[in-house]
Amino acid sequence: AQTVTQSQPEMSVQEAETVTLSCTYDTSESDYYLFWYKQPPSRQMILVIRQEAYKQQNATENRFSVNFQKAAKSFSLKISDSQLGDAAMYFCAYRRYQGGSEKLVFGKGTKLTVNP
Amino acid sequence: DVKVTQSSRYLVKRTGEKVFLECVQDMDHENMFWYRQDPGLGLRLIYFSYDVKMKEKGDIPEGYSVSREKKERFSLILESASTNQTSMYLCASSPLRGQGLYEQYFGPGTRLTVT
User: Buried-most residue among A40, A89, A104, B70 (CB within 10 A)?
Assistant: First the structure.
């Protein structure tokens, strides 16, 4: 069974600093997709960044980047130049297909606090 | 922009009541999902649907059922609400497999309290 582990229930960072959120997953598949979602307080969950497993190049979206280590089954999120608006719950997720169905398996989340 | 809406942001029901949570998406997505979000447990999949009148159980379907009579609408039904179903419920939608590297788009959530 696929599992996703986020080992840091809470993290904090100073404004303008860099923080890395960790995520590991367990799978026997070779082709899959990984995502980081952000859920601000009382607001909708939105996609931050995504990675295709067959791509070796790490995905980047502005201040957000990932460190994807396929062999280690690790998918960490780095936030550079942290801003107050980055404060949120962050969820790592794994998606794969089985037959005609898809499933998105989430980690338990990391609550990020940004200190001014 | 994709829009996923849920019928209520907050809902309070009594034990034993039948509860309907409605979700509507406006992007003609084939896939729709219902999740439950609890502190320390993350998001857990209750049910999903990849076509009208089609449904598949997720990881925690017990105590829930779903209905998808129209492509844009996916309903979650609690036949007899219980206090352990007090939670945040999130609906999501996504396009059909094969249409690029797509994401799931989430609604704002319904915080259900069962007393």
Answer: A104
What are the pLDDT digits (tens) for B8-21? 999 999 999 999 99
The predicted-structure confidence for A35-86, as pLDDT tens digits, reads as follows 999 999 988 999 999 998 888 889 999 999 999 999 999 999 999 999 999 9
- In 3D, which of A34, A5, A13 has the Cα closest to residue A79? A13
Rounded Cα gap, residues B13 and A49, in angstroms: 37
Q: Which residues of B touch A10 (CB under 8 A)?
A: none
Percent of chain A with pLDDT over 90: 72
The answer to whether the beta carbons of residues A35 and A50 sit under 8 Å apart is: yes
